[in-house]
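hi support,

uploading two proteins for the ticket. first:
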Amino acid sequence: MDASADEFSRHGYAGADPQRIAAHAGMTEGALYAHFPSKNTLAAVFTSDFDQIRRELPQGMGDSDPPLTNPHRVTAGFMHRMRTDIRFRAGLRLVCEEACTRGRSRR
């Protein structure tokens, strides 16, 4: 999973190469496809993980906190995940690409 997360976060969906993912993971491309029947299926793992993490970021916010405390906590949590979680970075890139693609197709 980390090999594919690294590939998606570096190259995006279109540039991600299943053969590079498999080589990085020390497996054959066929073995990769045995676990994930398509690149889309593999990418979906990261976008669904990202959605769950995104919902968790605001947890711990208090109603009685000073006004800037809650945005600071969310931003700090987001930046911490960006630095430390390759799967989060992959999910973010894929979600952003999807949103941009949807935006272009509506024009």
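and the second one:
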Amino acid sequence: MNCPNCHANIPDDSKSCPNCGQPIIRTREIVDAEIVDDARSEQPHGGFHQRVVFMQSNGSQLLPSCQMGIITLALAFAMGLKFGLLACIGFLVFAGIARVITFAVNIQLAMMGRSINPLILQVVSWFCCWSLVAWLAS
């Protein structure tokens, strides 16, 4: 196996490159079956071929969804310190509502074939929740 960063020869079970220190991200490929006898298909061979690549990283111990939850709780705690317990509870309620809305937006965009970075939606929802609770608390 070669390092994707410095192209040095490294062992297959390495978690990082011994030469440059870059973490190694493992990929695995899943290939769907090919339909051979589909008369309605417009492809020359009458079938389809789809490839999905899953990325695995061994560098992070927490899942990204857990990290988002921890950041949300930290922001709620900061809101509670700044404005009081009611503001903390209000931030958590608005953050829950924002989570449902961002989930619906992600589903709708996925159905349309487009995608957006979930971190962008999460940061925007945190900003909106913080601004709304700060406005209501003042």
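thanks. also noticed: The chain has a mean pLDDT of 77.
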